User: Fold these one by one.
Assistant:
Number 1:
Amino acid sequence: MSLLNLSLIVFLGVLFFISYFHISNFVLDRYGQRSNNRYQFENSFRVIIFILPAFIVLFIFILYPVFETVRLSFYDKFGREFVGLYNYKWAVNDPEFRRSILNNLGWLLIVPTLSTFFGLVIANLADRIWWGSIAKSIIFMPMAISFVGAGVIWKFIYEYRGPGDTQIGLLNAIIVSFGYEPQAWLTIPLWNNVFLMAIMIWIQTGLALVIFSAALRSIPKEMIEASRIDGASELKIFFSIIIPYLEQTILVIWTLITIIVLRIFDIIFAMTNGEWQTGVLANLMYDWMFRGGGDSGRGSVLAIVIMIGVIPILAWNLYKHRQEQKI
Amino acid sequence: MKKFTYSSILSQLLLLVFVIIWIIPTFGLFISSLRDKDLLAISGWWTSLTTTEVNEIYRMSGMASQIQEEDYFIIKGKLFENNPGKKIQSFGITSKKINEFEIGEIAIFKDKSEVTIDENGNYLWKSFNEFTKKKGKRVFTTSLSPPSFTFDNYREVLFKEGIGRAFINTLAVALPSTLIPLIICSFFAYALTWMKFFGRDTLLAIIIASLVVPLQMSLIPILTIYNDFGALFGVAAKSYPGVWMAHTGFGLASTTFLLRNFLKSLPNEMMEAAKVDGASHYDIFLKIILPLSIPAFASIFILQFLWCWNDLLVGLVFLDQVPSEIILTAKLKELLGSRGENWEILTTGAFVSMTIPLFIFFALQRYFIRGLVAGSVKG
């Protein structure tokens, strides 16, 4: 496809949606019934015009697929024959699946916790230092770049050369300068997961940081000043005032990062492709979407397992939404 | 005021450590992308920041380039192409003693031929007997090399490795994938906030629930739909419009949710007044809501744009991995596999892929942060 064609379809694609809204509303305004119940008549049409595109997209891309994926998980690899719980039984007995579940749990335990922790600590430090906003900018920056880009950055850090050669990877260069043997970090089982998680923590700390920074501003300055005058140490203030005050925010950030980590795919796909026991559910699923011509049954089971992870959060969000509606 | 207490110095130090750890990986990548590719492969990027001593081995030219001058046979040449700043300090003719001779000294090989090297790498090798070997002898040099950077890697990566085209493809994916949801969701959010209709609350609850539904739940059914659609109409199943709609679908819930939160904060009286004046909902949307929503649009635009730009999975599943469709992240992943040892390509490619996000980050950071904070505190 030539560049001219490409820009043309981009333009037409966007124009299509703008014209849909403009033309349909224009027609309605022009020929809408001019009577006493004008608003009522007009409104019902208008509502349809306003919500139809979004609703169709929502239906095709979220609602229908959720049910279809559940259905497919009970069918064979082509989605034709009903096989009951066969795919689920396969999953439970599959060593790759077990490995992935364990890895996913590790990710869920470590990444949100450490990202939230670092974010909180850095937000606090930066809040009191004159060059804090520059520091925040720098630590926040990885949020803007892609997981794959971050993967390349860190693969370069973890780069391994044989013991005799000059190490061009920073990590190995450091440990060699201390007199240790260089290591092929990404191939050491169990530990390699930690090295992959470090990348995610490096990225997500920025997210936690900016949200905490915003929340810190809501803590009354007088309260902190007062306790300082009373002689409380900074640590004491941190643990007795700031943390309790931010409890809600901590929870929000923790769940937010948990959701992101649950569907982590890019980093592992780019760095190890699940080798050396680093696979997670999303990678295994991607694998089964195409392995041996694709197995929609197994793929669906894996998607559902990921989905199960977010159900508590989903329920909690809906509950909170209900409470808000009541007010 | 107590300004220089121990605790304040300690916090400054601690923060400094965090900043250094966070910046170094990206900084190293950036520096590496600007280095000469041969140096990149043999030395750490941190060595390029200062003038460094490098030991190198060169081979002089062989018999083909000899000339006869009076009693001598002479081979003249350059050890390396002109590299301003690189100065040879000493040299040697055996691997055991690589800096046996100073610049200008004459080294004598076992065959009695003599060689001398100046600091710019010009050598003069002469012998009484005719040179008979096709290849010249090796010399070992120790030179001081000041920091030197080049854009060669960028030239190569953009035009030869297909990163340039992938960059354009990514733009063609990300722009509509951001604008389309913004357009349809702003009307959707307007309806959810300001219009009364049957099922509104249910729809809102569905949006809230969809916020956390992982992308993976949709992949298989949608891929099937696309394949069936492609087969039915005889068109390619994977295409740009397909990706736009997929991104629109996956970004719909969060875009709607953020916009609705914003619209809810606008005063109701304004809408009522406009209605009394006979304005239709579309008028209100165009003339009142749209101008007021520009900052909110900016935040959401940035979030969705970065998400589409940085995405790998959607581009991998819903686009063919061919030069005219492959996106940057997929291309990078491909290079990681095929050119895993060519760090000049990887680091430069990665940096090219980061240019737009970094630009947005530095130029529009305020909107970016506002969007993130709005999206999270509620969600």
Note: The radius of gyration of chain B is 32 Å.
Number 2:
Amino acid sequence: MNCQLCQKELDAYCEGRSPADTRTQVETHLGVCKKCAESFKLQTLAERIIKKEKELLPNPFLQTRIMAQIENLEAVRNRAIPTYMQVLRPAIMATSLAAAIFFGVMMGSYYKPAGRGTTIPIELALIDDAAIESVDILSNE
Amino acid sequence: MTDSEIIGLILQGDRDKFRILVEKYQQMVFHTCMGFVHNRDDADDLTQDVLIQAYQSLHAFKGAASFSTWIYRIAINASLNKVRKSTGNHILQRLDILFGAGKEKEIALPLLDAENPENILIRQEHKDWVKKALDSLPEKQRTAIVLSNYDDLSQKEIAEIMDTTEGAVEALIQRAKSNLRKKLTSSHK
């Protein structure tokens, strides 16, 4: 038996499904081939670990937790909104929105820029900003 | 009472009957999830999520496949989604390593010098190393090996769950075992 054949038969050998003569050949090969022997040990160890994981049981309170969560889901689902509210609520929201838009447009249409509250004094009205004032105005002579 | 009869009663409003289904299938779902996540707490949470999802989707169960097949599919999808999410986190960790932010902790593999593998004490390093090897398998191979090794299902049952042929399942399991062996041997060098 060579390594390739041994690797092929290893699964059946580990599971006890190998015929007697194949089993003997595998065992003989494992006794002389270090690489296949190592592979066999690793595979057996992996199978033991998987077996340990399989032996674990779920949390004993899992069923209670699941049923409690289902009760919560049903309670939320059953908190039904009355039929008249199912119609009234969207109607109220739509009406409020329309009223807000209408009110905004009305406010906008009545807007006028703010006018001046006081009349301009005559002295200021006569000032010609474009002209250069004579300095004599400022002297006391 | 058959599963179909129980489901009929639940859909009519007797939700307490779901307790019977939970009792019947929770261990099966737990083992399936355990095969993917290898952690008891995560498997418990996943089992809860799967059974709640099953309850919420009961109206969609048409009865074309058996209820157990249907539940297995939900469990596998939920487990694979969970694994994909955690793989995303691992990818970020690997990017950190690539850009030098951290060094990946090498798992020190034990020396298997005991002659009889039954005598080797199972340590956390062994479990991490087997978990890594299983996680490295492609999804279909991993699903097939989990259903075969953790749930002890026949190839026919696995084929029904995976919606494929028995021949394809046999090939998947063979390839999975071969890949596992290579991974275990190479990581032990």
Note: The two ends of chain A are 135 Å apart (CA to CA).
